[in-house]
């Protein structure tokens, strides 16, 4: 396996004090290797740490609990390894921003479109920032709009004039047009119907196939979409924390080898211990732990 991220003994908390005896850990990644060039779906019940892992992997928010045993490495397509723990320790915002710009792209359920820009300008700006001309970027935007069923949107149409679902597809188009090493998505198809969600995933699949070494990591509540399009599914497991000093039971999300599933040669989904046919696997993913 060609690894994209290698993680071990990583704990995440929004409690900046990390007090002994008061467990505030929301996510614990005991061991995880995310392969390159794949569509990786992250699933699990609400509040279990799905958004937290996106924040961690995408260097959006430093929730990492200091621990000398922690390991967190990113490998670029050229094989260069970057210690992301050291990147955070240096605390250089410009360095972090430059790293994200070079390797990462993001799409969220909230579209974050620029209201005073046309639909084409919203889509094309990310590609233009990478040095492509306006006409090249607009030409690519036209192709992507057609793939998403928005070929009727003209170059002068303002983004704010489109419906909510159409704007969601615009945001998806904006995310997949530029070159990237990793695309992170937090419920990127959450506001789309099944047909348009499928179109979006087909577009993403084509993008990953056309750009060597590119990958996508998607948080989703749509288990059918995950089973249909994912190359790897990570199901975050719930474990109870010890009772805190306030006598409140809390839980944390846990990721280890048993949480990572991929299809085998027979089409069954397996973590190399358990095996599920696709329909069974979808039901397993829906089950709360």
Question: What would your notes on this structure say?
Answer:
The protein has a single domain, classed as P-loop containing nucleotide triphosphate hydrolases (Rossmann fold). An eight-stranded mixed beta sheet has the order 6-7-8-3-9-12-13-14, with helices on both faces. A six-stranded mixed beta sheet has the order 5-4-1-2-11-10. The chain is globular, with a radius of gyration of 20 Å. Helices cover 33% and strands 25% of the residues. The protein is of the alpha/beta class and 289 residues long. It has helices at 50-57, 84-90, 93-103, 119-128, 134-147, 164-176, 194-210, 223-229, 278-286; strands at 3-13, 25-35, 39-43, 71-75, 81-83, 104-108, 182-186, 215-219, 232-235, 237-240, 251-255, 260-263, 269-270, 275-276.
Q: N- to C-terminal separation?
A: 29 Å
**DSSP strand (E) fraction?**
15-25%
CATH topology: Rossmann fold
* Order of secondary-structure elements: EEEHEEHHEHHHEHEHEEEEEEH
> Largest beta sheet: what is the strand line-up?
6-7-8-3-9-12-13-14
Q: What structural category arises from helix and sheet content? A: alpha/beta
Q: Tell the overall outline.
A: globular
The CATH class name reads: Alpha Beta
Q: How helical, in percent, are the residues?
A: 25-40%
Q: Quick one: how many beta strands?
A: 14
Number of helices: 9
Mean pLDDT: 91
Q: How many domains make up the coordinates? A: 1
CATH-defined architecture: 3-Layer(aba) Sandwich
In CATH terms, the superfamily is P-loop containing nucleotide triphosphate hydrolases
Biggest sheet details: 8 strands, mixed
Question: Low-confidence spans: pLDDT under 50, at least 5 residues?
Answer: none
Q: From the alpha-carbon coordinates, what is the Rg to the nearest angstrom?
A: 20 Å
């Amino acid at each position: 396996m060609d690894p994209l991220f290698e993680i071990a003994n990583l704990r995440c908390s929004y409690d900046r004090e990390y007090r002994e005896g008061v467990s505030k850990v929301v996510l614990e990644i005991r061991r995880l290797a995310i392969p390159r060039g794949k569509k990786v779906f992250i699933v699990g019940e609400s509040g279990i740490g799905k958004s937290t892992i996106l924040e961690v992997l995408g260097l959006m928010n430093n929730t990492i609990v200091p621990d000398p045993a922690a390991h967190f490495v990113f490998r670029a397509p050229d094989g260069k390894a970057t210690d992301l723990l050291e990147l955070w320790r240096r605390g250089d915002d410009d360095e972090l921003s430059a790293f994200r710009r070079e390797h990462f792209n993001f799409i969220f359920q909230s579209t974050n479109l620029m209201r005073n820009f046309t639909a084409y300008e919203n889509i094309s700006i990310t590609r233009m920032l990478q040095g492509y001309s306006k006409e090249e970027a607009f030409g690519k935007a036209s192709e992507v709009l057609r793939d998403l069923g928005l070929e009727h949107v003209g170059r002068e149409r303002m983004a704010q004039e489109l419906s909510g679902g159409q704007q969601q597809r615009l945001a998806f188009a904006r995310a997949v047009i530029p070159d990237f090493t990793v695309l992170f998505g937090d419920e990127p198809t959450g506001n789309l119907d099944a047909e348009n969600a499928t179109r979006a995933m087909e577009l993403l699949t084509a993008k990953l196939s056309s750009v060597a070494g590119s990958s996508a990591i998607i948080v989703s509540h749509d288990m059918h979409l995950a089973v249909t399009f994912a190359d790897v599914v990570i199901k975050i497991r719930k474990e109870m924390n010890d009772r805190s000093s306030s006598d409140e039971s809390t839980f944390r999300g846990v990721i280890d080898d048993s949480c990572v599933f991929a299809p085998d040669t027979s089409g069954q989904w397996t973590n190399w211990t358990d095996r599920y046919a696709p329909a069974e696997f979808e039901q397993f993913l829906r089950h709360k732990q």
